[in-house]
Specification:
Elements (H helix, E strand, L loop, with lengths): L7 H6 L6 H7 L21 H28 L6 E3 L3 E3 L6 E2 L18 E9 L5 E5 L7 E7 L17 E6 L11 E6 L4 E9 L4 H11 L3 E4 L16 E3 L15 H14 L7 H15 L2 H19 L10 E2 L5 E2 L10 H11 L8 E6 L14 E5 L7 E11 L13 E3 L13 E6 L11 E3 L6 E10 L1 H4 L9 E2 L2
Parallel strand pairs: 1-11, 7-8, 18-19
Antiparallel strand pairs: 1-2, 3-4, 4-9, 5-7, 5-10, 6-9, 12-13, 13-14, 14-20, 15-18, 15-21, 16-17, 16-20
Helix pairs in contact: 3-5, 3-7, 3-8, 5-7, 6-7
Pfam family, one: DUF1254
Keywords: Signal
Protein name: DUF1254 domain-containing protein
């Protein structure tokens, strides 16, 4: 029989040689120790092509973290909880601001918003203080608070689907070692110093429900641990201050990641989010190149130049849903690891570019569409229908909605002020066989069908997102899939 000749160190690691103690007892010398691998040598001169390679790679995998960190820098400028431009919740770090109704169409801070829930937003600086979260009693109303770290991965479970109790919850940083005050229901620990909380509370599209929700959301709040006294604080979110918003030239999302600043910001961002297992070499590599560029303006400019190219060649295409995701019939796509990306850098960055801050799969199932059933780009030049057969609506324990966006993933202004259709719409008309047909087009399909009409941009491309909040097991197992978009003849 063939007997391999193993190198001494490998043989020891594989257990083919005696351990040190056994070797000593037998009178043989122990095998030599295996040295730990070293990282980049700071004294080595590097080439511009190598710096470009590392810069391009880092631009892609770190893009979501820099995106969220720059939102932290924006929030820390807020003097008090309020609404930026009168439309976006904005609060000082470790505080929260809430809307009092659906989000306004004019906002450009977050792509792919929805008009199914009343949103709130809080960015946490856990390196400054632990924080307390208030959860009022929402009764049977659907609600979920998303708690995401700097990587946009969730680190807590808080919502209807978890049976979470009303009361006070606490969020602490990775190194916090204090005592938990009396009255705190549960403590959540984040792995990054920066985190974000996004409450989502369902609201039906009726005047009665818009009035009823005000008392409930008045108890939604976030504040530093020092302000905790065991009593619920309340706000009338309809009266918060409105901050002016500078005009924006682009019709797309506010640009949060810029090549000129990226490599100056990245060391701080990476210190905020320590490497996951296996990422240590990736961190060391980019930090060594950034360090080299500090003393070489030409090298730094080359890195910036490469980041600009990567932004156009790698990041920009990810705005389009058809370029990524798990393929489904009729050209729909979906994801199975939302807010649980870990080291799936591609999906994390794709989601961050196109619709950042998605919920975990058991909280919300997302379906994305750019194309009709024949594979042609959706456009307001055409009229389309989507028909859900009887008993084949999205299988949900919460609610579902179909939202239409323009090419930049924002709402399409229209006379009906309507941007989505679904559970919240109480006037949807069903067909005689029990199926439900929705009409997606620029012009009205007729007065008898307007309750089911989702207005599209005239002559412009558009995209769709179907959300299923608190999906049942059929959706989780991909047993239910959305029907295709049929172009009208």
């Amino acid at each position: 029989m063939f007997s391999p000749v193993w190198p001494l160190g490998v043989a020891a690691l594989l257990g083919l040689l005696p351990l040190a103690a056994d070797a000593a007892a037998s009178g043989t010398a122990p095998p030599p120790s295996v040295a730990s691998p070293s990282g980049p040598d700071a004294n080595v001169r590097i080439t511009e092509p190598y710096a470009r390679l590392v810069a391009r790679d880092a631009w892609f995998w770190a893009w979501p973290m820099v995106n969220l960190y720059n939102r932290r820098l924006a929030f820390q400028k807020a003097p008090e909880p309020g609404l930026f431009g009168g439309v976006v919740p904005l609060a000082p770090l470790n505080r929260l601001s809430m809307l009092s109704d659906y989000i306004e169409p004019a906002q450009r801070w977050v792509a792919c918003p929805n008009q199914d829930v009343v949103y709130g937003a809080s960015i946490l600086a856990l390196d400054v203080s632990p924080i307390v979260i208030q959860v009022p009693d929402f009764g049977k109303r659907f609600w979920v608070y998303q708690l995401a770290d700097l990587r946009t991965d969730d680190f807590a479970r808080l919502g209807s689907m978890y049976g979470s109790k009303p009361g006070f919850y606490m969020v602490v940083g990775r190194d916090w070692k204090g005592s938990v005050p009396k009255g705190i229901v549960q403590v959540f620990r984040a792995d990054t110093s920066t985190a974000m909380i996004v409450p989502r509370i369902f609201q039906a599209d009726t005047a009665a429900d818009k009035a009823a929700i005000q008392q409930l959301i008045s108890g939604v709040d976030v504040y530093p641990l020092a302000d905790y006294d065991g009593t619920m604080k309340h706000h009338d979110w309809r009266t918060v201050r409105k901050f002016p918003q500078p005009s924006q030239a682009s019709a797309g999302e506010t640009r949060w990641v810029r090549p000129q600043a990226f490599f100056d910001e990245l060391p701080t961002v990476l210190a905020d989010a320590p490497p996951l297992p296996g990422e240590q070499a990736r961190y060391a590599q980019v930090l060594a190149v950034i360090d080299a560029a500090h003393n070489d303006p030409a090298l730094k400019q080359a890195m910036i130049d490469e980041a600009e190219k990567a932004d156009q060649e790698l990041i920009a295409p990810l705005l389009q849903f058809r370029n990524w995701g798990v393929p489904l019939p009729h050209h729909w796509t979906t994801i199975g690891n939302g807010a649980q990306f870990g080291t799936d850098y591609f999906t994390r960055t794709a989601v961050a570019r196109s619709n950042i801050m998605v919920n975990a799969p058991n909280e919300t199932k997302y379906y994305y569409e750019d194309l009709d059933a024949s594979g042609v780009r959706l456009t307001g030049d055409n009229a389309y229908t989507i028909t859900f057969e009887k008993d084949h609506l999205p299988p949900t324990r919460g609610f579902w909605s179909l939202t239409l966006y323009d090419e930049h993933h924002f709402f399409v202004p229209n006379a009906l002020n309507r941007y989505s259709l679904g559970t919240r719409n109480t006037e949807l008309k069903y067909n005689s066989d029990g199926s439900l047909t929705l009409y997606l087009q620029a012009e009205s399909p007729g007065a008898d069908k307007e309750s089911n009409w989702l207005p599209a941009p005239k002559g412009g491309a558009f995209s769709l997102m179907l959300r299923n909040y608190w999906p049942d097991e059929r959706a989780a197992r991909h047993e239910w899939k959305p029907p295709g978009l049929v172009k009208a003849s």
